[in-house]
């Protein structure tokens, strides 16, 4: 790919799968967004929307996997965008890289803030005198970010081991939660309950309300580009990285559907639980009792912490690669690698500091925090869509060992169509009446990011950044290898 090796290949096929599976993290995604789905479509959209969106995400994953096989680098999306563009390669690469960066930072911030919120919920259940406070959530998030940065500072082997543990934590945790919701309650909803439809969004159009409910699954299925970003540290990356993407999505789709069904059929008092501050936690309490609910809540918190760690790992590699090509302020600083651990330590701490900056507005305004992190999904899926769109336009695309053959363009076309539809949904109003607290700030947040990137591009970046850098011929690059 034109770069000297600085990172060691310690990720096996399972490790590569593990990082995307952990970032998607069905337990974290479903528990943090289930309440929104209860008001936007109810069980019908939660269950059947999960199935439909999972299929569409598989198309996105397959199109990305084909590109990952052809360009297995840490730069992943922005690198492949620069290589696939017919013209203006620097601009395509620039915008893709910054969308990817901001989306990943938002994902790390949102996941860890959600973990802090659930930690406070657990503490309040254990000690009723404690009252959750947004400022405490910011402080807890800061502590979590520091601990995750420390874990990422050490060898990639440690990260791989933690990700292996996280996979088993998720799978065993899923079995425990589903088994508890199936066996312990003395009653469940009838089989036809999955067709129950609810529209509490405030909009009178039920179709619109139900379409908003599709966001629950879309929110969950982000971050599977993690396997792509870990390519330079993965053995046989041209095959194992694309397989990691596809396996992570497929396993998450199947296990997530099981968890979704378990929660839906365990609902007791719909109005009460939908109106709770944490609806899935209230479902656990009503169905299983406070004691069992607290134990299961620990599983959920653990899943969120693992998810945040994997998010930071992926973000670190994107920072490292983007800096290697000179696209970030202080690039020489951020793409340096520790000679002892062979990890980009400085990029790790940048990946910890940026989410903390996003979380800080939550100290005084939950709306401001939501406005900033809402760009997470929009930024990521737009970053996914750019190289797929460019591959669609390219007639002489050279696939890697893992490819879709003659179906490549068809799959890419479906993927781009779904990305456009889902991003429009993310930027539409999600509650009525529209007020300062219910307004969807995602378009504004995205607009600010694109405005800054555009001004920066025309002011200076276009003169020095021409896309991914090549350090020379393969034999010259091999002679520069630092490991």
Automatic annotation (TrEMBL):
The lineage of its organism: Bacteria, Bacillati, Actinomycetota, Actinomycetes, Kitasatosporales. One of its GO terms (molecular function) is transmembrane transporter activity. Keywords: Membrane, Transmembrane, Transmembrane helix, Transport. It is found in: Membrane. The keyword Ion transport does not apply. The keyword Metal-binding does not apply. InterPro entries: AA/rel_permease1, Amino_acid_permease_CS. This is Amino acid permease.
């Amino acid at each position: 790919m034109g770069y000297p090796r600085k990172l060691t290949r310690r990720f096996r096929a399972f490790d590569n799968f593990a990082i995307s599976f952990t970032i998607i993290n069905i337990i974290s995604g479903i528990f943090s967004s289930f309440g929104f789905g209860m008001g936007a479509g109810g069980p019908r959209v939660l269950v059947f929307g999960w199935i439909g969106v999972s299929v569409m995400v598989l198309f996105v994953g397959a199109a990305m996997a084909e590109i990952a096989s052809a360009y297995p680098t840490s730069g992943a999306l922005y690198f492949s965008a620069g290589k696939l563009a017919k013209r203006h390669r620097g601009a395509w690469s620039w915008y893709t890289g910054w969308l990817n960066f901001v989306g990943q930072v938002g994902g790390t911030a949102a996941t860890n803030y959600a973990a802090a919120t659930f930690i406070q919920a657990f503490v309040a259940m254990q000690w009723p005198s404690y009252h959750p406070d947004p400022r405490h959530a910011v402080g807890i998030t800061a502590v979590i970010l520091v601990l995750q940065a420390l874990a990422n500072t050490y060898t990639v082997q440690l990260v791989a081991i933690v990700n292996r543990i996280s996979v088993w934590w998720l799978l065993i945790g899923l079995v425990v939660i589903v088994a508890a919701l199936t066996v312990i309650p003395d009653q469940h909803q009838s089989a036809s309950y999955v067709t129950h439809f609810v529209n509490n969004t405030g909009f009178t159009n039920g179709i619109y309300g139900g379409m908003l409910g599709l966001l629950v699954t879309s929110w969950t299925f982000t971050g599977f580009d993690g396997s792509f970003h870990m390519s330079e540290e993965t053995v046989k990356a041209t095959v194992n990285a694309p397989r990691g993407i596809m396996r992570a999505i497929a396993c998450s789709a199947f296990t997530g559907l099981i968890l979704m069904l378990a929660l839906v059929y365990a609902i007791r008092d719909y109005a009460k639980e939908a109106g709770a501050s944490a609806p899935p936690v209230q479902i656990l309490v009503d169905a299983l009792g406070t004691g069992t609910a607290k134990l299961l809540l620990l599983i959920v918190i653990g899943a969120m912490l693992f998810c945040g760690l994997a998010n930071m790992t992926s973000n670190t590699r994107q920072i490292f690669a983007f800096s290697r090509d000179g696209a970030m302020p202080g690039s020489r600083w951020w793409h340096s690698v520790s000679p002892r651990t062979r990890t980009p330590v400085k990029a790790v701490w940048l990946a910890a500091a940026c989410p903390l900056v996003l979380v800080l507005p939550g100290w005084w305004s939950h709306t401001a925090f939501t406005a900033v992190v809402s760009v997470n999904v929009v930024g990521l899926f737009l970053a996914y869509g750019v190289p797929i769109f460019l591959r669609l336009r390219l007639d002489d695309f050279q696939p890697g060992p893992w490819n879709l053959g003659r179906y490549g363009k068809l799959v890419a076309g479906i993927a781009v169509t779904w990305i456009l539809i889902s991003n429009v949904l993310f930027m539409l109003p999600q509650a009525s009446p529209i007020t300062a607290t219910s307004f969807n700030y995602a378009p504004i947040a995205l607009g600010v990011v694109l405005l800054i990137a555009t001004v920066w591009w025309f002011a200076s970046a276009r003169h020095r950044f021409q896309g991914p850098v090549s350090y020379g011929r393969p034999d010259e690059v091999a002679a520069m290898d630092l490991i």
